[in-house]
Structure prediction request, 170 residues.
Amino acid sequence: MHANTTIQQRSGSRLPNPQQLVPELAEIGAALFKATGNGSIPRATIGLVQLRAGQLVGSTYLAILHAGNLRTAGESEERIAAVATWHDAPYFTEAERTALALVEAVLQAAPHGERVPDALYAHATEHYDDTALATLAMAIGQVNFFVPLALIGQPLPGRPPAEQWTPVSA
Prediction:
């Protein structure tokens, strides 16, 4: 059976611009960006992790946002497209694969056992020191901080920042 589905196009987000509603959000976002930009993890790795996080939580807005950030940073279309299938894609270093495995472990339910088992943690320590691991955890957390706004507010994907959110009514 084939179901006909139509996705309604909106002209604005469901929620008005949260940065206008809660101005402190700008400071929090800047602090998170600064914390993940401490140099212990390459920005490309952080971008790949954040793209995968957006995919895993099912947010078109976040997936398009982070794919665009990677594109702007000069990442190839092959690497961007292959993030969803990184397990068998030839485009990633072992360190990047470990980071992608960590984001999946953190964000996906583990029906049996720990989400981040000792073996995965041990493998991660082969590629990342303690500062880098903490930074990687913060990069995952950075995306997750914005997940509720993306899923509840539904900003418009692929639009310039000023057009993603409906302005706050005066």
Q: What stands out?
A: The chain has a mean pLDDT of 92. The radius of gyration is 17 Å. Residues 19 and 65 are 17 Å apart (CA to CA). The chain has nine helices and no strands.
